[in-house]
Amino acid sequence: MPSFMKDLSIRRRSRHSVKTAETRTSSGNTSGTEATSDDPPPSKSSSTLGSIFDRQSPPTTLSSQKSRSSSYLPGLNSNGNGNKTPPPVPLGSRPRVPSTQGSRYSLVGMPSQSNESVPRQAPATSPLSPRVTSVSDGSWVHQKVLLISGECADLQRPIDGTMTVYHHQETFPPTQWPVCDSHFKALVYLQPGPNRLRFDFTSPKLSSSNGQMQVHSSCMNINFLPLISSPPLQLCILIARDSPETFDAVPERIRKEGNGLETAIRKFRMAAYLWQAFTAEQMYRNGFGRRCYRYEEEWQPGSLSWKDVESGHMRNEAKIHVIRLKQTLKEVRDLDLAQQYGPANRKGDLFGIASEAVRAYFGPRPGQRQYVSCMFLDAHWDKKVGTVRAHAALGGGDDSIKLAIFGSHCLQSYPSHVEEVVPAFTDCTRTDTDYVANDCNEGGSNWEAANIGIGAHLHETGHLLGCPHQESGVMLRDYVRLNRTFTCREPYSTRTKLQGLRLCEPKDECAWHRLDTLRFRVHPCFQLPTDQPMNPDASLQVWTVDNGTVLITAATGIAWIELFPEGDDECYHWIEYLDPTNPSGSPRQITLTEQTIREKLPENKRKRKLKLKVFSCGGGEHEVADFSRLASKEGKIKLPDGRAGFRSSKLGFSQMDGSQPTQVVLGSCQKPGRLLLSIRVYHGQSLDGMEFSYEDGGSDLFGKRGGSPGGSEFVLDTRRGEMLLGFYLRAGVWVDGVQILTSTGRRSAVFGNAMGGSGHTLIPPRGYSIAGVYGSSGPWVDGFGLIITR
Known about the structure:
The termini are far apart. The longest helix is centred in the middle third of the chain and has 25 residues, at about 260-285. The strands form nine sheets. Strands 1, 2, 3, 4, 5, 6, 7, 8 and 9 form a nine-stranded mixed sheet that branches. This protein has a five-stranded mixed sheet with strand order 13-10-14-18-17, with helices on both faces. It has a five-stranded antiparallel sheet with strand order 26-27-38-37-28, with no helix packed on it.
């Protein structure tokens, strides 16, 4: 008797099912064998026997490693003993039969998928069944399209074949993926909640004695939890005011799939889901779980499967915003705007055009930052000039709009549906430059053009998310091998003039740099519901203290420090403090010396001028232009009362015309000491100066008396012992605004431009107090820092 039938008798069958079973038993068995008590009732469907809601989960045989993707959802994954448990059965639902069967099977022949009344056979286990190694059974993920990889058959005797993915309750059409040398990669479409997936492996080299194709199957459970509490990455297509709404494509492509706006939307959407699947897998490999950004989605005719397009099936898929520009086609295709055209003088203007259009479309208010990745549909290959018009690859933005832009000149090579992903990345058709561009001479065939288009746009989206250029990975030009992430075998490359890899392993694939994944880990778009709300963080500061020691403080914890010896444009050396599973456990204060920092560098770089960039777990960033100068005696002063004072790192660039150093030591550190009564701030749309007034009628001026006449006064309540605690500054190149913080928790208004620059909180570390302020002043204050003392 099969093992999964042992507990069959505990199921309470309805009167109708009993009658049906009795009727079928009396009428005989069509196969010539009599029904016995060990046989399952014919009225029971296979979906009941293999339900993911069984009270006993089948043994996990699909992963060779423990999943880290569900570590932040322990309450949803395990019981007190650490064992995975399925979701609870809702009240009022039909009882389920416990299942003790394994999750890998071998079938001879495949039952019809269209006839739901035909029960699937109870298969036997097979060592040739697919084994998913990239994700564990029962894991939680947060993206709709999941990238998986694994093995089939015997790795000692590798064979090729095909793996078919059957999705949960057949809510998405089955998809087929090649198996190369017993390895496979596939994209799986997930429904919100638990998903029961089946993988069928077949190969013409494996046949049964009766000549039928053998099917070796395995199943696994994946839980999909959509994220709606983090800001989405918006996807936009920009079209000129009088655009024909078409993109470049060869005539054959136009006949087969068209080159209109609807086709562009499908291709851009599919490319975006590839970005997401790739990024989530990279985050997992770097130890941060399967976290990723999300897209804004809407209920619309599905396009992730070609069958959805034919049938008009509705799905919740990524929304592609179509924004019409106020510029004409002639204006956006002006050669003077083309980034790749050498003589062009306005190569960055397309970014401004896109930014203006996106800002008008989304209308962000202060504090409502938008993250937007755009494609210019009207990009056009001009063969006569030898450049792509209406195209620029740029990423960046300001506090309200983070933006990436790219052209559509490679769009014809993109896949439109999940079923086209492997064909798109293995299509060796040569690029016909009579109709389409060979971008940077690295897109000589269709699959290479897909790499360039999808990958370079992802590179610019990386800039949008805060990533600079790196020594390797996507933020260099690693995307020229993006295809290896989604395929196991690589075709001939016109770029390298070599035959591609026979087997693409993880070490051969495209990747995000480690520093990119660290940035993503603390980025608001990558936050999970279980994460503490730590962004934005203005508390990160660097302080000079005794004996050449430097303190770094951040209320949310210090994540990592990047080291830049003079001559290094990209970061090659860094120190990590971030706990991948528990950022709140990262240190809130660390102590550095110049010796310990320089020991982290190679011998030939230790004597160079050293720049530091410090990052907090809350997304804060602080730059120290010259660490040696900060840690040296220049950062130490002698106060009038004899105590030692220490300068913090300075905000602002101190580079304005006529900028001069300025400094004020507060009365509490003077001889005799004076009680601070009030602070008068002089400002307009930036900080001009501050005047500190004392009980003896005297005052000290930092900066100058400018801006609004009389300035704005903030009076301390000295009767309650209120003292100056610190400042909150808005600063960039200069100081835009300042807010006064006191020991009683009071805050003044932000004097100056409350939205200018970025926010920074200056409060001395524990055991220290404010002794004064220093910086520089030109037309207004363009440098500001604290002097602290014990």
